[in-house]
């Protein structure tokens, strides 16, 4: 019996060991599958990263080519900018000196360009306002200064209008005939 117990214990231990090995095998296979999935994901990411890297590398080379071709142009513009800035600084200094000179000589501000332009605009507005008034005034210049002479002139004009109307009527009648 002792042997039999030992045999059963041995068989049981063997079965437990086999079960433990099967569990270990299952865990290892599961781990292997997860690692394969992770590895596939990493491969995909690596491919995408490599594609992006190549695209960026090509873009960089294109940009470098463009930069090389534009380099002389950019240098020219940089020189122009430096020149323009130095001229602007020179002009500011010159303006400052001239303004100091003007203020020291006591020049009246009414002769400055801004003031002259403003006065010119005001003058033009006044001329525009006067134009219709001059037209009205011209109609009164043809009248004599005395009221009785004005009435006589008015009667002469009425006769002249009547005479013109009769001529027009005669011409219209002749056209109808």
UniProtKB/TrEMBL annotation:
<keyword id="KW-0132">Cell division</keyword>
<protein>
    <submittedName>
        <fullName>HAUS augmin-like complex subunit 1</fullName>
    </submittedName>
</protein>
<keyword id="KW-0175">Coiled coil</keyword>
<dbReference type="GO" id="GO:0070652">
    <property type="term" value="C:HAUS complex"/>
</dbReference>
<dbReference type="GO" id="GO:0005874">
    <property type="term" value="C:microtubule"/>
</dbReference>
<dbReference type="GO" id="GO:0007098">
    <property type="term" value="P:centrosome cycle"/>
</dbReference>
<keyword id="KW-0131">Cell cycle</keyword>
<keyword id="KW-0498">Mitosis</keyword>
<dbReference type="GO" id="GO:0051225">
    <property type="term" value="P:spindle assembly"/>
</dbReference>
<feature type="signal peptide">
    <location>
        <begin position="1"/>
        <end position="17"/>
    </location>
</feature>
<dbReference type="GO" id="GO:0005829">
    <property type="term" value="C:cytosol"/>
</dbReference>
<dbReference type="GO" id="GO:0005819">
    <property type="term" value="C:spindle"/>
</dbReference>
<keyword id="KW-0732">Signal</keyword>
<comment type="similarity">
    <text>Belongs to the HAUS1 family.</text>
</comment>
<keyword id="KW-0963">Cytoplasm</keyword>
<keyword id="KW-0206">Cytoskeleton</keyword>
<feature type="coiled-coil region">
    <location>
        <begin position="18"/>
        <end position="52"/>
    </location>
</feature>
<dbReference type="GO" id="GO:0051301">
    <property type="term" value="P:cell division"/>
</dbReference>
<dbReference type="Pfam" id="PF25762">
    <property type="entry name" value="HAUS1"/>
</dbReference>
<keyword id="KW-0493">Microtubule</keyword>
<dbReference type="InterPro" id="IPR026243">
    <property type="entry name" value="HAUS1"/>
</dbReference>
């Amino acid at each position: 019996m002792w042997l039999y117990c030992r045999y059963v214990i041995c068989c049981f231990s063997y079965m437990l060991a086999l079960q433990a090995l099967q569990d270990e095998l299952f865990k290892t296979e599961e781990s292997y599958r997860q690692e394969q999935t992770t590895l596939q994901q990493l491969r995909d990411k690596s491919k995408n990263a490599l594609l992006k890297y190549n695209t960026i590398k090509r873009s960089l080379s294109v940009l470098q080519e463009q930069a090389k071709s534009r380099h002389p142009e950019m240098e020219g513009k940089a020189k122009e900018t430096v020149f323009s800035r130095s001229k602007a600084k020179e002009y500011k200094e010159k303006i400052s000196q001239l303004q100091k000179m003007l203020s020291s000589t006591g020049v009246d501000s009414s002769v400055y360009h801004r003031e002259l332009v403003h006065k010119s605009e005001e003058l033009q507005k006044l001329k525009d306002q006067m134009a219709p008034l001059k037209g009205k005034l011209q109609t009164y210049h043809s009248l004599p200064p005395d009221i009785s002479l004005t009435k006589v002139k008015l009667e002469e004009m009425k006769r002249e209008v009547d005479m013109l109307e009769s001529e027009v009527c005669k011409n219209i009648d002749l056209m109808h005939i």
